[in-house]
Amino acid sequence: MGYHHGDLRTALVDAGIALVEEGGLPALSVAEAARRTGVSAAAPYRHFPSRQDFVVAVAARAAQDLEATMRAAADAEGDDPVEAIAAAAAAYVRFAATRRTGFDLVYAPELRGVHDDELREAGRSISDIVLLRAIEATGGDSRAAVGVVPQFMVVAHGAASMNRIGIFSDLDSAAALAARTVRSLLRGAATPAS
Fold first, then answer.
1. For the domain 61-189, what is the CATH superfamily, name and number?
2. pTM of the prediction?
């Protein structure tokens, strides 16, 4: 990958994504991203004043990629909000289990407490895929719908984690389990109180 007078910031972030995919967060190096884009080691610092700024930019892109993957899966299910959320859960599992950016970067401890608009917006968009459909699935019960979001994350992230460590060795089974569990949770959240 080389940089040829285009958007250097984007090229560096692309290189950063590739580095994390190859070797996890420890492999994310500003100098290596510069080398891969064919620019001097100092050039990235015009766009990213520190390594932390670079990590945040690469994490924001990873979150945007995750959001796009989940949204496409949810949208493909049409108007059924429960099936859309279940499809988003399966897509999340596949993304997080197969792309190191899903674990090593989006949830990196060094990003806790970081205030970055692009990263915050990407996270909000991921939550909205679930929340807006959960409001519909719960018959407009916003309180129940808000509770669905962390449950979704526990199920989807947990299934992906179990796949990554070899407990659920079949990725399709892990994704299907997440989808089934989310369906079950949503049907319980949509059940009217007696």
1. Tetracycline Repressor, domain 2 (1.10.357.10)
2. 0.87
Tell me if residue 112 falls in helix, strand or coil: coil
Return d(Cα 19, Cα 91) in angstroms, integer: 22
102 secondary structure, DSSP code: I
* Domain ranges for the chain: 1-49, 61-189
Question: Per residue in 24-64, pLDDT tens?
Answer: 888 999 999 999 999 999 999 999 999 899 999 999 999 99
> For residue 113, what is the DSSP state?
T
Rg of the chain (C-alpha set) = 18
How does pLDDT run across 156-173, given as a tens digit for each residue? 999 998 998 889 889 999
CATH code of the domain occupying 1-49: 1.10.10
Cβ-Cβ contacts under 8 Å for 89 (sequence gap 6 or more) = 152, 155, 156, 159, 175, 178, 179, 181, 182
Total Cβ atoms within 10 A of residue 112: 7
**Do residues 95 and 104 touch, judged by C-beta distance below 8 A?**
no
Most distant pair of Cα atoms in the chain: their distance: 67
Distances (CA, A) of 54 to 11, 15, 170: 12, 11, 34
Tell me how far apart the alpha carbons of residues 30 and 63 are, in angstroms, rounded to a whole number.
19
